[in-house]
Amino acid sequence: MKVINRKMKAIILRYTFLFGAISLGYAQKSSNTVVSRPNVILIMVDDMGYSDLGSYGSEINTPNLDRLAKEGLILREFYNNSICAPTRASLLTGQYQHKAGVGYFDVNLGLPAYQGYLNKESVTLGEVFRSGGYGTLLAGKWHVGSEDISQWPIQRGFDRFYGILKGAANFFDTKPLPFGKIGYPVTLLKNNEKQNPKDNSYYFTDEIGNNAVAFLEEQNKENKPFFLYLAFTAPHWPLQAKPEDIAKYRGKFDKGWDALRENRIQKLKEKGILLPNQSVATKDPEVPDWDKLTYDEKQFWKAKMEVYAAMVDNADQNIGKVLKKLEQLKKDKNTIIVFISDNGAQGGFNTYNPLNRGLVKNDGPIGTAGSFDYQEQNWAYLSNTPFRQYKNNFHEGGFSSPFIAWYPSKIKAGRIDKGTGHVIDLAPTFYELAGIPYPSELNGIQTNPLAGKSLLPVLFEGASEINRGAPIFWERAGNRAVRDGKWKIVSTYPKYKWELYDLENDRGETNDLADSNPAIVNKLSDLYNEWALKTGVVEFSKISPGQETIPGAAKNRNN
């Protein structure tokens, strides 16, 4: 792909959708660069459920990630923010997403915590790594600011960038997605010879991987370590995959979601990821019994999961390209790799989806360039095994991520541990590992203190979980949660009644203990309210366009 340089900046300013290779050189002048410091690769997939990797019990072929898991560490408990942009805001800054300015999504709701792009007080991984003498590379999805060039990756610390600024793209070409009314822009950058939809060699996940490899080759000429953020859009909608990848999964899902979920539960137990004392979520009443579907219904549903699996498979293939390049450059022994997902698999159904995604927009079979479908709740129920609920929800299925960390000779191979980590913990982990002091000020602006804790005691020292000393908090679109030790309170908008679960035994969230433990609920609720005030959280009914205000909502600790 052609490279867009500084001379094109005037042209770029006219666009709100970025697709193409951007590579603006950055020359770091530093006399104390230490090239022996570890390289860091952060890999994130999009809308993939907790159990969709082979190493987590899946039917999907993911040999490269399975290798990293076998040679590294799996954490049973690692959390994101339940949806794309807020997770990315916390991941990139080490802040709760409201503090970073992306409290709701990448849309501006007119308040500092909800401006829809990263504020300058929340410095990015790119900015901090760059200040410490690292080369900074990003291939994939940004989704934390697109309306102005000052919000873009190059301007927020990345030396090289290839990908999209917004939330999704066609995988086979760069035609606009047919969802302009919900914020996906329709203007494209041009001057890209591979944007011809008739060019069968183009597939976006491959382009992300290819550009990551090219960036590593270019960066190898520099006498400094690197940070690579590899942010795939797969398996986020639209369901589109290469025919040869889909073909691998013909017949793989014929048993249906009920039987396959039971298979995954058994494999999770055998692997030690799901402990014997742990509950599993009860059957989702909105998901029909597979055995009661007609033959035609089964054929329709199988096709969806075959394509979804092919998208995950292809992402793993491209991770393999990066691993191979690391070995070729002889950098694999001094590189840490962390893998996560940005949220749980997406629930809901096309037939009553208010955004009118999916079937009504399809102009080609599922899997092709004309397919704008998604997995839907029936298969998301499988992907989020063994948990309850889906993306944009703070029950365990909505925001529990697989977590793999790999660092040869530094992380003990084959470990599975608890962790109880959060995406806000990755920034302090990486900075401590790289020996980079977190700046109290950058470019004359006082920075927000980091909200997370370093994972290094868990990764390197054998600690089972972080000694956090404080709860973890969540809020997004009125949904709320607090995790403190084994206890978790959670509520789902528009209801504000807290549920309480003992996650030491009940990550399936089958037994609500709130009524029998009011003191615990009130304590955690008070801590939540203090955090919300400090972080800039606003009652969702007061900021959500088209939502009715709920009188007195969230004022009582448990109503």
* Number of E-type strands: 16
Strand content: 5-15%
Distance from first to last alpha carbon: 55 Å
Number of helices: 15
- The strand line-up of the biggest sheet is 1-2-6-5-7-3-8-9-4-10
Outline, from the CA principal axes? globular
Weakly predicted, low-confidence segments: 1-35, 178-198, 352-360, 546-559
> Structural class, judged by helices and strands?
alpha/beta
The largest sheet, given as strand count, sense and whether it forms a barrel, is: 10 strands, mixed
- What's the mean pLDDT score? 87
Radius of gyration, whole Å: 22 Å
User: Could you estimate the helical fraction of the residues in percent?
Assistant: 25-40%
Helices and strands in order:
Blueprint lengths: L2 E2 L4 H4 L6 E5 L15 E7 L17 H9 L1 E7 L4 H10 L3 H4 L24 H7 L3 E7 L18 E5 L39 H16 L6 E6 L11 H5 L8 H16 L23 H34 L6 E7 L34 H8 L12 H4 L4 E3 L8 E8 L3 H9 L6 E2 L2 E2 L9 H6 L10 E5 L2 E6 L2 E5 L7 E4 L15 H18 L4 H4 L16
Parallel strand pairs: 1-2, 3-7, 3-8, 4-10, 5-6, 5-7
Antiparallel strand pairs: 2-6, 4-9, 8-9, 11-12, 13-14, 14-15, 15-16
Helix pairs in contact: 6-9, 8-10
